[in-house]
Known about the structure:
Blueprint: E1 6-11, H1 17-28, E2 31-34, H2 35-43, H3 47-54, H4 56-68, E3 76-79, H5 88-97, E4 98-104, H6 107-114, H7 128-143, E5 148-151, H8 157-174
Parallel strand pairs: 1-3, 1-4, 2-3, 4-5
The structure holds shikimate-3-phosphate (S3P).
Shikimate-3-phosphate (S3P) binds next to loops.
Amino acid sequence: MAERKNLILVGFMGTGxxxxxxxxxxxxxxxxxxxxxLIEQEAGKTIARIFAEDGEPHFRDLESEAxxxxxxxxxxxxxxxxxxxxxxxxxxxxxxxxLVVCLTARPEVILERTRAESHRPLLRTADPMARIxxxxxxxxxxxxxxxxxxxxxxxTVAEVVQRVLEWMFHEAGQA
Length: 175
Ligand code: S3P
């Protein structure tokens, strides 16, 4: 795993990147970092405010900047924002930074997991289920570029972590 030094989690909102990322980091003895947190720290305001005041394109530029900074990291598990898969330049940086694992979940599960939270501007709509389906359809081909995908709908966090780590160690053996 010499040059694959980090584990990068991508995936739609509500697929478990934060919970799985934290648990995986603990098991690996890696540090945990979330690109949304990096963006908020750098901008000095929340993602919701960045969307409202500066617009989504500006948010995507800040996101690409945060993703670019990942290549400097070692021994980190990184949870990314659900839309980071949309830009090629982000993929280049993520692949350089480590192994990229996509977490997925059924739309109903995503709705259930995200409905109690209000910090995601893209899901603040009258019909979040329709929005989830529309975004998932549009993004499916982008998420499919990951090295591994795990459907978290019916798994515990520990089970997802176990699958990801088994695969990672297998990959490391092949390298
Ligand atoms: C987004 C996902 C969010 C955050 C922003 C946009 C997206 O991150 O980056 O609200 O486009 O899917 P999470 O996936 O961590 O919720």
